[in-house]
Each structure stands twice: as structure tokens, then as C-alpha cells.
Amino acid sequence: MGADCALVIFYYKWCPFSAKFAKHFNALARVYPQFHVLAIDAYGMNSVNMRYGLVGIPSVLFFHNGKVVGKVNDSEPTIDGFVSYITQMTGVSPVGSTNLTDSDLLGPLSSTPEPKFDYLLLFSWVFALVCFFYLFAKSNVFKTTIETVRNNWREAEAQHEHND
């Protein structure tokens, strides 16, 4: 395999797992200058995600002559893991040191996730809580608790009237 090989990461700017991948992926361009190393922000690109069968983000695809020949979706990425995978796939050894450098932390992919408010997550939590409280309000435990509180309240009022 030669210069027609590419490593492509599909990531989200706000994803903490993508940020964790970033420093290791940034190092690949330095370690494998003979390969094209690309990054695609796949957020909102459902057709691309479906085309390449991306279930989890971040995912790294290895292309040869425009065709996907390998895929990496590791929860604990390391530069050594990438190097081992690439060497196994291609037989090409890394050029230079595989140790992470300060420049690998700087970019081009950011090692810190971009802050983003997730409205869908908020809606999901609100929906779940509303369902929980609705079902709890219909439960015997809730009805028994309310009846106990009412009885105690009535007894307290009756006791208060007696004292006056």
C-alpha cells in the first residue's frame, strides 16, 4: 500500500471521546507522512454515517484506493495501538518517534471538547421525570402516603380545636 492510503476520523467537536482520540490521531500525520490523514466532523451528516456504517463516534476508517479496508472504534485509543493496527494492515512502519509531543495536543483536532448544550438530552430527562411522577401518582404507595398525610392533618386540626 502506498500514497493512495488515507486514515479518516469521523468525530464530533463536542464529544469528549472524540477529544480523547484527538491527540493520538494528530500524531498519525507526523508518524505516517506517506498517508493522507483527514478528519470529518460527522455531526448532522447521517448519510455519511450510514454509508460507512458508523455506529459509534469517534471512528477511524482506513481507505485504500477509495475503499474502506479497515475500521477502528476503540474506547481507549493510544498512538501505539494505532501504529500496531496500521503496521498490521499495511506492513508500513512508522517514521520517527511514536511518542506524543506538545504539537499533537494542539491540533489540528482539538483535545478539549467544544461546549454544546444538548436540548435533546434535556427533553429526554424531562420526559422521563414526567412519566415517572405520573406513574408514581397512580401507585398505591402514593395514594397511601397522601391518605396518611390527610388523616394526620385532620387529627392535628381536631387536637388544635380541642385545645382552644
UniProtKB/TrEMBL annotation:
Residues 1-91 form the Thioredoxin domain. One of its GO terms (biological process) is cilium assembly. The keyword Transmembrane helix applies. InterPro entries: Thioredoxin-like_sf, Thioredoxin_domain, TXNDC15. This is Thioredoxin domain-containing protein. GO terms for cellular component: cilium. The chain crosses the membrane at residues 119-137. Signal peptide: none annotated. It comes from Medioppia subpectinata. Keywords: Membrane, Transmembrane, Transmembrane helix. Pfam families: Thioredoxin (PF00085).
